[in-house]
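Hey team,

Filing this mostly as a record. A colleague (T.K.) asked me to run one chain through the structure pipeline before their review meeting, and I want the input and output archived in the tracker in case anyone asks later how it was produced. No errors, nothing strange. Just documentation.

Input sequence:
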Amino acid sequence: MENTELLCEIPTSVTPRADIINGLLAQLDNEQDSDIRAEIIRKLGEYPEPQVIKKLWDLRNNLENESDDFVQYEIKLSLRKVTNHPSINIDFFLDNLEVFPSKDNNSQAPKVLIDAALIEEFLLRNQTTLNREATRVMGLVLEGKINPYIGEMGLIKIWHSMKNLKSQEYANRSIIELMSKINVGQVNLKEIDLEKYPNVNLKTAIQVEIARKYSLAGIITIADREFIASGYPFVGSPSLFLQFLGEDTSPASIERTLKNLGKAAMENEKVKLNQLLENEPQQNLFFEDNLFLFQGWKIENFEILCANNNLTSATVILCNTKTQERYTESAFKKGSVDALCTAFNEALAHLVEVKHILKSIYLANLTPGQQGAITVKAAVEYDGKEVITIHTHENILKAHFFAYVKAMIAVYAPKEYHPDIHSTKELTYFHKIGERDFRGLNFSQVNLMDSEGNLSDAKLMGCNFSKANLLGVNLNKADLTGADLSHANLSKANLTGANLTDVKLDENNLTLLDCTILTNTIMPEINIEISGESRLEKVAQLLKHIDPQSQSRILAVHSMTDSIWWDNPLGQKFWEVNEELIKRKISIQRVFILPEVPTPKHLQVIQEQLNSGIEVAWICQEKAKDVEGYRWDDTNLLISENLSVPRNSFTARRTMNRQTETGYISYQTRVVETDKSIFNALWEKSEKLSTQANIQEQLANLST
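Output structure:
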């Protein structure tokens, strides 16, 4: 311990810091005594320098060589201390790359640039398809079958991601681990000729330059599409690389696969495009390639010329695909869109009598910057009807023109018009800028679940929302008259004040009643068969959404052959809903069907409901067996009548036939009116228990 004491007393003000560190490292290499080694390692923990961190990291990776537990403890403690120091960050590691060389610099395995995002996915260990592919690629790295490289920018990205998700210490340790296994490629940005990469971003250009500088066999990246315009052929995604690699993971097979990635990527894109065209008809792509109109005519060409006199010249050429007959028309206007549409109208007049009126045409581009798709909506009036079309294009003039041309096809050749299936973005973009009219458009399969999902006050008459995900969407006061909602997910949507007249639904579309807010909603003529606990839960949900200002009332029949139903959990929940309705000043009339000899429990339930403010009547089981030709002794009924919005009224019935239960919830006018008529007849035949003065006397009569 004598040497250790002398070591600890070395004054840092006298001996330069580098000399102290070198002295400690040299002494550690030659020292065998465990106590002294532990003291040296502890002292090293006070110096967050590259040589110290590298030494401590190597010791940590070879803990099995240290027989003393105390020395192992000091290694872990000192390493944590130096990697947790505020000065140790990504700049520190980049400034000291020579201290942390990869162990595989002399590897004969193919040299491959690994995308930083792929490595990050591997480090995060998310249980996704992408992560599984990243794990397999990194497995080849760890097995020594790939000699990996990464760019400086990638290393910086990983460090910041790890720091934000975990901690600075975790990020530092991750970088040390990576630098011990992966070569860091460096290029001088000033030496990159960016004119060679006119259509790629700087990050992609840097990665290609690294691959060329270090003669790499290829690049494996998640962002493989960004390299298409780079001219570098040996690039592929993890999935594509693994797919073409197959079972043979030898270095030769890996290098051969990388050399064929460019060709494989092109073939793969063709396959995906063909599948896309087969499974999802792309009217936009088809339309833009051919520009068909109707009756065998197509737009052969159109162009815009801008002059210095503030006028724009537009020319449109129409061609008959069979006869090759052509019409060429031009127009001069101040605006490009005006000139183009006018020229098209002039050409169109050769084919049909032009009678339409262009009500509006405008864009909704909410993507910042110069690039990005432009979505345009055109609204045209013809013969007293309005036709709306939407088109998305990266060219602003084409977006306007194609939206207008499609409106012309829909107006003058409706049988030849094939509506596009519009995207979620197209729908939400327009709604954000205050546009609410989407009538007749096809939004089947849109997914608004993770978007802002606001379609309040929207005009959606005749829209196609079949198979759309409208989970939680705000459709407050939206007009969905005649819309197709078959197989749409309407769970938790807000349909307050919405109009669902004549909407198309699939059979038993229960998502319409799945926590959906239907306050004052104009409902379609639907009847849904549903029984058991599910029916009661959905009825309770509907009752909670009754608007107190809507002059609503509840008419109910309860066959109380089972007096303890109101005490079980389901009955208690339903009773709480009843109490809430009374507090909101919504009247409830209930007829109890009782056995010939009621029990005290029957009387207790009746007393409780009378005291709460419910109008109560009773009829004995025998008399209820034939009311208006219907047997009520085994039936429960609840009618929610909305006097302000009659089409929001519904009826729910449950019938027990021996041991078989059936039930429904119905918004059909005929069913609601029939059930109301039967309730009124039953109410008239029942004994009323609504006056406080004679409640006890009537209850006493019940018990006798």
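Quick notes for T.K.: The first strand starts at residue 111 and ends at 114. Residues 1-14, 276-286 have pLDDT under 50 and may be disordered.
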